[in-house]
Amino acid sequence: GGELHREAGKSRSMMKLLLLTSAAAFTTAPVRTPLASSSTSVFAFTEPGFCDGLPGVLAPTGPWDPLGLSEVDGGELRRYREAETQHGRVAMLAVVGFLVAESWHPLFKDVSGPAIDHLTQVRLEYPAFFEFGAFFIGLLEINRALTGWAYPSSRRVVNTLNEDYYPGDVGFDPLGLKPSDPAAFDEMVTKELQHGRLAMLAAAGFLAQELVNHKPILETLKLLFLIDQAEFDKLEGIAGPDPTVIDKEIFSAAPDTFGFGK
To answer: According to its UniProt record, where is this protein located (predicted)?
Structure first.
């Protein structure tokens, strides 16, 4: 009981930390640096500085790179930003997919349970779905490669971005959200980066939590709120459910995913 209680406390602390961290993603006033403004069509490095003037710096941390990952040449730095932007976009879709599909699956009504099991369930019922999805993703990646990456005509340009390509800007903007003003564009890019960074942390947390207790995220979140309320009621002397019972419920029905019990 005590061990379960401590584990639940750790889960609650992590959840609260993520909720507090999310506030940074919605800050609308990025730190402006006296570096080159990014163009909506041609990216040029005109002054040295943090990340060669790429947007993404946000108060209160400002330029934050404790591991020195940005201390590379401009071409490599732009590849890093391309990877960060694309991973952030995938993570944002993943977070929405977790929350929506576990409550109501828009495509497959017979799919249920934690999202980490959904692909397995779908493949059992619709074996060709994964192949179709992989083909569609492949088309998107081919378009990104043709748009942003230099043709490998020589060893020197292998795995490099085109000089006129802005990292992440593949030309897909059906709603016309991309600002024409460079300053407004930098601000929008910063917002996207912050939301993507938060989403990458959240998606990793969702995956880890579902591997631990094999419950949908919203169900786990509900239990965490219930145990907080039960502990408060216990301190106040109000009759209610026993927190240790909720502890056991949080970690019940957890499969031995990694075989630790063998």
So the answer is: Plastid, Chloroplast
